[in-house]
Amino acid sequence: MIDAIFKAFNEGTYFSQSLGLFINGDSDFKTPEVLEEILTVKELEVLELISKGFRNKEIAEFLGIKVRTVEFHVSNILPKLGVRKRFEAVLKWADVSKEK
């Protein structure tokens, strides 16, 4: 955290390492570990359920959360993966999941 403060003070901006992947143009996830660093545990759960074909309402019921919360997680997942649609996120997830 101290490094972040100094970097922000000296350079005016600071980006976390996971966000740096996108800024540097390296958003190609080759290993599950990289994906796990970028997404929260709950986002990973939501993404896995999306990849199984669940809709937001079904995901909400399965996880015991509100549909709006699922929508919030999805809205966070897409930019983190550098995609615009759920289908694209599922493709990235499938590509990384086969590495496990």
Give a brief description:
The chain is mainly alpha-helical and 100 residues long.
Low-pLDDT parts are: 21-26
**What is the CATH architecture term?**
Orthogonal Bundle
CATH class categorisation: Mainly Alpha
How would you spell out the order of helices and strands? HHHHHHH
Number of domains: 1
Main beta sheet, described? Answer: none
Given the structure, what is the number of helices? Answer: 7
- Average pLDDT score: 80
DSSP helix fraction? over 70%
Gross morphology is: globular
Taking all Cα atoms into account, the compactness measure Rg is 15 Å
User: How many β strands by DSSP?
Assistant: 0
* Percent of residues in β-strands: under 5%
SSE-based structural type? mainly alpha
If you consult CATH, what is the topology?
Arc Repressor Mutant, subunit A
CATH homologous superfamily identity:
Winged helix-like DNA-binding domain superfamily/Winged helix DNA-binding domain
End-to-end separation in angstroms reads 31 Å
What do you see in this structure?
Helices cover 70% and strands 0% of the residues. The radius of gyration is 15 Å and the shape is globular. 15% of the residues are buried. About 6% of the residues have low confidence. It has 100 residues and is mainly α. It has one domain: Winged helix-like DNA-binding domain superfamily/Winged helix DNA-binding domain (Arc Repressor Mutant, subunit A, Orthogonal Bundle).
